[in-house]
Amino acid sequence: MARLARTAGLTDVQEEILSTVRTFVDKEIIPHAQALEHGDTYPADIVEGMKEMGLFGLTIPEEFGGLGESLLTYALVVEQIARGWMSVSGVINTHFIVAHMLKQHGTPEQQQKYLPRMATGEVRGSFSMSEPELGSDVAAIRTRAVREGDDFVINGQKMWLTNGGTSNLTAVLVKTDEGADKAHRNLTTFLVEKPEGYGEVAPGLTIPGKIDKMGYKGVDTTEMVFDGFRIPAGQVLGGETGHGFRHMMDGVEVGRVNVAARACGIALRSFELAIEYAQQRKTFGKPIVEHQAIAFKLAEMATKVEAAHLMMVNAARLKDSGARNDVEAGMAKLIASEYCAEVTQEAFRIHGGYGYSKEYEIERLMREAPFLLIGEGTSEIQKTIISRGLLRDYQSRG
Known about the structure:
alpha+beta; five-stranded antiparallel beta sheet; three-stranded mixed beta sheet; globular
């Protein structure tokens, strides 16, 4: 096994899961990722393989048919999957966030209704906060749900839904009239059931189509348009309105650990490609790895891979312990995404002109890494979260 990105203190079960996933990535993902990515093709066969392995139920409690594993186990699995192809990790990321929100905040009826089918992958989750005119400013959400008898009617437009077309259950954050003086207390999460596909998938609900992206191909990213969409009040997550912001932020903390794990996976793969190529490519009569300029690059890259991995593991373990991890998750996401971009670019430079060719895997990674700088909150948002948390903990007593 490679030296980098090892994790101390894992159980035998965790080691077995990771070994199985690593083999699956090497045999079923890496050999096919280039062709699927270049064709912007949904990885249907890979997804079926993940269903058979039980990965869609990895963290869902055993009582609901899942494996009942920790966030740490999930993060390490995601790291390996992203090492193969980041888009595949995107398929399960939003699913896992919705499952986590249901597990933590859903009513017993909602848990029983969805979690067993989510564990098998029959129900696949996505979640939606962003809108066309806002990103991280969640309190400025305009999509609104108005109560009409036993139902709510939703109107508005959501943006940047990963798995928007291929999921059939979406957790959607919208505005409700709670009369609260603070905007975030007027937000509610609805569990929107819908068919897979594009166009008007249900009366008053349209998924316009896939957004064409620079990278992160294969997995679908969409808008979601509500026009008089009627939904039963029983689909409010937790059964009570006005708690959506808290529910979503809990999910996003988990999502930030996931994005950090994805960044670790891409950085690790970039390093693997670079150190392999550096031993094969020769200039001035010797492999380029023997040139100090390249050797020093590899040393710095490896150090960044290891540092990001350790911070990601720490954030996951804190969340598993029940402790608050907003600062640590923000730190892990910040450092892992920034280091991922740096390591990938250095690997690209080591490849020289070949790195610019679509024949080489590093070209794909160069287009995927930037997404992690903005997904689940930009680096600037992470710094805001971190600084506020530090001021909370280091408040001057003078």
